[in-house]
Amino acid sequence: MNSSSGSAAGPSSGSGDGSAPRRNSKRPKYSKFTQQELPACKPILTPKWVISVFTLVGVIFVPIGIAALMASNNVVEIVDRYDTECIPANMTGDKVAYIQNDDIIKTCTRNLTVPKDMDQPIYVYYQLDNFYQNHRRYVKSRNDAQLKDADQANKTSGCDPEKTTKDGSPIVPCGLIAWSLFNDTYNFTLGNKNLSVNKNGISWKSDRDHKFGKDVFPKNFQNGILRGGASLDSNKPLNKQEDLIVWMRTAALPTFRKLYGKIHQDLKANDIIMVTLENNYNTYSFNGKKKLVLSTSSWLGGKNDFLGIAYLTIGGLCFFLATAFTVVYLVKPRKLGDPSYLSWNRNPSGH
Amino acid sequence: MMKRFVYINDDSSQDLYCDNRISNRKYTLWNFLPKNLWEQFRRFMNQYFLLIACLQLWSLITPVNPASTWGPLIIIFAVSATKEAWDDYNRYLSDKQANEKEVWVVKDGIRKHIQAQDIHVGNIVWLRENDEVPCDLVLIGTSEPQGICYVETSALDGETDLKTRVVPLACIGLASEQLHIIKGVIECPNPDKDITRFDGNMRLFPPFIDNDLCPLTISNTLLQSCYLRNTEWACGVAKWLSIWLTIFSGNETKLGMSRGVPEPKLTAVDAMIDKLTGAIFLFQVVVVIVLGFAGNIWKDTEARKQWYVKYPEDGPWYELLVIPLRFELLCSIMIPISIKVSLDLVKGIYAKFIDWDEEMYDHDTRTPSHAANTAISEDLGQVEYILTDKTGTLTENKMIFRRCCINGVFYGNESGDALKDVQLLNAVANNVADVIRFVTIMTVCNTVIPIRSKSGTISYKAQSQDEDALVNAAARLHMVLISKNGSSLEINLNGSLIQYEILDILEFTSDRKRMSVVVKDCQDGKILLLSKGADEAILPCAYAGQQIRPFVDAVEQYAQLGLRTLCLGWRELKDDEYNEWSHAFKQARSTLVDREWKLAEVCQILEHDLEIIGVTAIEDRLQDGVPETIETLRQAGINFWMLTGDKQNTAIQIALLCNFISSEPKGQLLFINGKTEDEVLRSLERVLLTMRITSSEPKDLAFVVDGWALEIILKQYRAVFTELAILSRTAICCRVTPSQKAQLVELLKSCDYRTLAIGDGGNDVRMIQQADIGVGISGREGLQAARAADYSIGKFRFLKRLILVHGRYSYNRTAFLSQYSFYKSLLICFIQIFFSFFSGVSGTSLFNSISLMAYNVFYTSIPVLTVVLDKDLSEKTVMQNPQILLYCQAGRLLNPSTFAGWFGRSLYHALVVFLITVHAYADEKSEMEELSMVALSGCIWLQAFVVTIEMNSFTILQHLAIWGNFAAFYFINSLVSTIPSAGMYTIMFRLCRQPSYWITVVLIVAVGMGPVLALKYFRYTYRSSAINILQQAERSRGPIFSMGGLESQLKSLEKDVASLSTSQSKFRNSVYEPLLSASDPPPTSTRRSIGPATFDFLQPAQSRLSSSYSRNCKDN
Fold it and tell me: In what residue span(s) does the P-type ATPase C-terminal domain sit (chain B) (predicted)?
């Protein structure tokens, strides 16, 4: 036994040297990649590192949160829900019948008080609630080729069920989205003076230039039995129909605002704006809400406290975590990488 | 039995059989596309994706452009098809080369040069030295007067020694001119795939009348792709042509055929991924049904009121199905289309890493390691049982003659080398009769071929390493085998020449376990039978009255030393006896049916009444590093079984030498033996009882069983044995046959253990194929095992690296990659589901088709591929703490509970992304394209940080992939944003200019990653797993284990792991990561500071016992 075990180690130690000078072509080529030895940094989660990351995040987040909150607070916003108010008292029982009756003149007047000074430009939005522009049937019901190119007016694929008129001639612009174009109108007067609403440039420039053709005119639009929303001036090319362009940018959520126009005039606090509106659009059949919104804007957009609050909360939580980790680290220090923590290194007689 | 008749040199009959055109191609130009598609669509995943893609063509229900599924699907199919096409083209090229090779063939009595593909059955083919044999041939003539030639069969079986091929008796002595016009018929069975057998007959036609049917065996044939060596020319009849070749490629053809088509192996990880995929599929079905119902209800209650949607009053009959189908399509991305491709890719890289590994390059034989099966690297990390062969696997298979015992006299006992024993040398010099006889048998009784080189030195080519050792030893004792020409044999003894005529060779088979030669001494004309073989095969043949006791003792003594023994015996034959027997032998040789069995029976008749004259002892040294490797792997919680054909004592000695078992006070061997069923059962039950009782003592228990008992056990007492197998970490099975080895593997597999079989010889092939992982050692016994194996390595010690480094990394990487793939798919899918609640449950897709496709195929697939470079611990740390392998073995990193973690993470992240986006981009900003791009950006940012936080090491490639992917996302989207017709025209520019976009995205990352980081840190520091601790140790203070004190501390305690590991690996279904570190040490075990070879048996036994019941249920 001794002899065999003794000699076991013998020969192979020498044999390695023998073949060293002559390299075989089959021998793996050495490179750091093939040997999986590329230099690598191997960070580990040390308490110091983790605590400083959380502190750093807190330090960054809190100021941003404050800035965002301030921006949001500086935005002055007037929201007025008018769909319930603009129904004559005798019709409140059957709002749908009211709105669907074309013979009734649906003019309505609202007075809005400006709470704080508003600097121009003041954006006028209409807000719809519970309106599903993102519905599967709705959102796809359009044809971009037709909107862009006059030669492709016949392309109405995807526009079901507002594709063609009864006699089969194509509708331009086709599809449910265009058909249901919002058609309430607003007129603003401040004191006795008319507040002019600029409706130019409310849509995206890229849409006007590249998505809606300048030689495409509405055709057969709103000619069906069932009238949807607004009609279009058939003498105006589509790229000038900015309300349509705005409307066709479908909203992702059932509550959304769309730009109606801009007011290029500063408003003072306690100014009273009189809005004369035509309440044409049917939101009653599905319990939707219609709101008129006048708002200024900030670097973050409109009035939205969410980002500011979220940032402040996260920043605070990060500080909390950093402190908590520090306290735990100080109270119950744990040596990193102590092999005695390895279960196979624990003293089994401890039990 | 099907027979065929081959007419030699007869052109009229040649059309009966096909020509010699080789075609290994799987496809032709025409059937490539349909056949390849058919093959690919046999995978369930592909069928699923095709169904989804087809559904998407229905525009009513598709939420996205069909291109988002068709694109990736076509890319994936194209990649697979291209690979297949390339392989097939290479096969075509190599076929073409082989087919157009020029060969000499006799046509109409003249030699002609034709292409190999035009050879027909029955043609006579001429070969020159070093020619490759173009098809299977029956030898009919050679340049050597004795009618022999030498072939090298390394392409077939990997054996590099030369084999003799002889001309059949009927053709001996024919001149080469006669061979041109020879006619005859060969009767042979239809082609089969056995390369070791050929049973045929030949009859020559006039003028070469030979009354006898001349038997043909494998030694009369030249198989395709052998090489003719040391022979000027040879000439053969095309026997049958390479019709086997139509399936497999290259020169592996016959081998591939002869071992059958192995079933593709599925790794445990793959099985787990399939299971998880199934679970996700179920989840998807549930989501689809629930949302489908909700959608239909919402449609009827709400959407009908929404005039602008214009729902028709009554829709088509399938209207109810539309919404569920839409959701099915929307949710189809839950099962990531890219996972299969990613996994195949990284598995290919794992395999390449094994091939490339310089530390697994065998300098002695100049062979690199090779992963023939690229798909199962993860399984290496999950091995629980290693079944190893002994000879050639643990040992070097380099035989050296060490000792001998001749008629009771021991030689070589003092010096350890009989060749240096003066006594023996003197005995030879003085012509002591017994000693001379002994050495003569060593020299004559074998199939060694002496080859005289030009310089006059003689070298030996032997198929058996033992014979080689014996002949060389005899030469050192001045009895030199000089030449062997056909039947004559010359020996130089101390300068005088002795001649023998070999009359018959009674070949060695593993059933007979002995071989004999019948020779005629040319000096005195006596006929002698010389035999050698294993003790149990030779000693019973001793003549009545001979004292065999001393030989038994000698065998015993040598086996104690771990030496291989052979007994030598002889007998003189009477002429009559020989003649009578010779006739029977000839008859047996020419039978077509059961020839081997009949031959064995005839041999039996002759081999009796032998005079035993001695025992040889041959040493087979342990390979370098075997004990260390076994010890390390045992620490890693892997159980070892040794399966050997060798004797019990030899096996036990080797086992002791290589740390397999420990000697008496620490370890105990339990023997299972017995000759009858009752004895075996009693023995088995006793062992089982002992095993159960002693399992509470810290003892190193192993059971030993021999082939005979095993045969009975496997037939009758499988259930009991299974229990024993579960209890025992170590087992030695001696005298087992190849099929028993395979059965044992199967038994362990049926207990749900991951098995690895390692071996080097042809007798290990079945076990290697049966096991989950087969490892072949490309050693001296040829390449058969290495060819059949999934991995071939040069030395046993590479196994350590193969398992601990490659297996472990592969497992870790795949575990991450696969779960991450599900995570990212689920993430985007959950967002879609949340969005559907905001879009009237109508199945609108938030994301556009391009984004969805790119998200799956590029943004989230490419960075994670760099996981192939991830290393959680350095190789050195793993080698020093092999216990860490337990995490892989027990499947800690990929199981339903870790997957649940990833599932939860994707749900949480989807919530974060969706809610933050929806709130930040509310009201006037709520534009579809913008909002979807913000959400997508959030996903991309999150996934980059998830990859970052889950990676353990960062090379430059990882940085490039992660952050480059980030840049690529913005680049690609900006690019798409410049296309006016695209839906997202100008969106990216618009967003990048908005401060709110960046603030939103950063918020998403902070909210998404904050808890992940905090949780990970907490676990890492206060609930750290062993991996974490080692990471900390390795990185914060450099290599801790260079410190001496620590090393010893580790050592003294590492035994407990053995127990821990096995016990815990059984909890694989209820795993939770910190289990290892949190688990309590075994309650009753005591601290011991004994040597490394002992290990604790308590814990595994108990837990195994409990788990064995459930496991047994499976069997019953």
Answer: 786-1023
Restricting to A residues 185-224, those with a Cβ less than 8 Å away from any Cβ of B are 204, 206, 210-211
Q: Identify whether A99 is part of a domain.
A: yes
Which CA distances in Å does B130 have to A185, B123, B136, B580? 99, 20, 16, 41
Q: Which chain B residue shows the shortest CA-CA distance from A27? A: B368
Q: Pick the range with the lowest mean pLDDT from B262-266, B764-768, B863-867, B882-886.
A: B262-266
**Residues A52, A162 within the same domain:** no
pLDDT band with cut points at 50, 70 and 90 for residue B782 = low
- Closest to A35 measured CA to CA, from B369, B879, B957, B357: B357
Q: Three-state SS string across B907-930, please?
A: HHHHHHHHHHHHHHCCHHHCEHHH
Instruction: Report how many helices (DSSP H) and strands (DSSP E) chain B contains, helices first.
Output: 40, 34
- Side-chain half-sphere of B1106: how many Cα atoms within 13 Å? 10
Look up residue B396 and give its amino acid: E
Output the CA torsion B894→B899→B900→B901 (10° steps): 90
Q: How far apart are the CA of B1094 and the nearest CA of chain A, in angstroms?
A: 15
Tell me: do A170 and A52 sit in the same domain.
Answer: no
Instruction: Report chain A residues whose CB lies below 8 A from the CB of B1031.
Output: 42, 44, 337
Question: Catalytic pick from B136, B199, B389, B1056?
Answer: B389
Question: How high is the ipTM of this complex?
Answer: 0.90
- Helix, strand, or coil (residue B21): coil
For residue B688, how far is the Cα from the chain centroid? 32
When the pLDDT of each residue in chain B is averaged and rounded to a whole number, the result is 79
Best of A19, A41, A137, A282 to disrupt the B interface (most B CBs within 10 Å) is A137
pLDDT band at B945 (very low <50, low <70, confident <90, very high): very high
With 0-12 / 13-18 / 19 or more C-beta atoms within 10 angstroms meaning exposed / middle / buried, residue B113 is exposed
Domain of residue A319 covers: 45-75+298-330
Do A177 and A302 lie in one domain? The reply is no
Shared-domain flag, residues A259 and A284: yes
Amino acid in position A28: P
**From CA A308, how far away is CA B900, in angstroms rounded?**
33
Distance CA B967, CA B864 (A): 15
Q: Would you say the pTM of this structure is higher than 0.95?
A: no
Render pLDDT for B660-712 as a digit per residue (tens, 0 to 9). Answer: 887 666 777 888 887 788 888 888 888 888 888 776 666 678 888 888 888 88
List, in sequence order, every beta strand (DSSP E) within B153-255.
162-166, 184-189, 200-204, 214-216, 221-222, 227-229, 233-238
Per-residue confidence (pLDDT) for residue A1, from 0 to 100: 36
pLDDT number for residue B835: 94
Is the pLDDT at B897 greater than 70, yes or no? yes
The answer to whether the beta carbons of residues B213 and B160 sit under 8 Å apart is: no
Let me know if B511 is a catalytic residue. no
Among A146, A319, A253, which Cα is nearest to B927's?
Answer: A253
